[in-house]
Amino acid sequence: MKTRSLGHYDLIVMGAGSAGASAAIAAARSGSNVLVIDRLPFVGGTSTGVLDTFYGFYTPGEKAKKIVGGIPDDVVSGLAKFGSMIERANTYGAGTGITYNPEHLKVVWEALLKKAGAKILLHALLQEVKVSDGRVSELTLATRAGLCNVTGDYFIDATGDADLSHYAGFGYEKAGDIAPAQTLTTTFKMVNVDMKERKTINKDKLHELMQIATDEGYELPRREGSDHITPVPNTTATVMTRLDSTRKDKDGNTESVLDDPFFLTESEIAGRVQAAEYARFLVDKVPGYESAAIYGFSTMIGVRETRRVYGDYRVQKDDVLTAKQFDDQVALCGAPIEDHHSGDGTNWIYLPEGSAVGIPLRSLIVKDSVNTMVIGRCFSASHDAHASIRSMGQCMAMGVAAGITSSIALKKKIEIRNTDFASVKSELISTGAVLEVPK
């Protein structure tokens, strides 16, 4: 089949979620000719299709410290202009969150990209990656106009599932092969909620009601789910459902939702069934929900972990828990390890209050490539470290670092890993990025 050429770009960012969009904005502002591609019909990925809250901007604890800034602040400022943003405490003490209207965020992301000069391509699925000696040169995409190819000098894998790295043959760890994979969640919203009545019970009482309802026959696999206020009056958003992201195939081998297309399809369907059951529970059993109704499911099921690419450095659990600092750190994370394992609970392990682990540039450089970086939830980290650093605030900060690094490499015409870190650091700081924990 004949393919159509979409041209050549300095930098191609595959994936336009929080990480990819931030990378494209940063690179375009640095003067690069950037194309950012996504399979969805809008920019933002999980931030607009599944969730409604940015975590990671602040460290947890009574004395919160702001550890993400610059371009991510521009995103928040754009939301504030719509009047669709509130700051609220995390239900589990994971730090202050910034809750927004996802529909407004779609407009904000796209406006920032266009203003920066980045080219956006939506409704495009990655099919093939051309690579030689670790150098990616061309992508083949499936679009509504047929198969298309596009060439570039540098690439960023921001697909979440490491699709670019997978098709290129670069090394990665598949979730579930070494440590248990995190679960899937279909989120949903409820409208016509009496917020005054809802506030009469705390999260412990909500969980108690979930357990009682389960004993009565309600099918609620997770009894530690949460609901929260939103900028839309009398509307709540939930994180309640839970489905396994791996299973055993007929030969006893572990397969993920990426290995069998029917597995992901079945999960999407089952997630909506679960969400409807949780909504029934809320209306029947929880104060404030007596006259409420389900308003909408997430666009797609929320996926926490699938593939994690091997980079020049792999962030480890001990790095996170000791709040390790790195000579080449380009971002910070203070979020606890938040492991949504199979079962009805979630494991939380917190960093020392007021501290944050550094995210080294090396963890964003694909080990097997000379011109490819990886950001977002498929970056180079162990299962436990990933469970902390995957927050959207950190995904945005990683994206900015990757966009700037790629632009510097482009100007010097050098391999990504040969980029002078002092130059990267200087440009990051000039954007407002936070690289050291505030005193």
TrEMBL record:
SUPFAM superfamilies: FAD/NAD(P)-binding domain
Coiled-coil intervals: none
Molecular function via GO: 4 iron, 4 sulfur cluster binding; metal ion binding; oxidoreductase activity
UniProt keyword terms in alphabetical order: 4Fe-4S, Iron, Iron-sulfur, Metal-binding, Oxidoreductase
One Pfam family of this chain: FAD_oxidored
PANTHER family assigned: COB--COM HETERODISULFIDE REDUCTASE IRON-SULFUR SUBUNIT A, FERREDOXIN:COB-COM HETERODISULFIDE REDUCTASE SUBUNIT A
Protein name per UniProt: Unannotated protein
Species of origin: freshwater metagenome
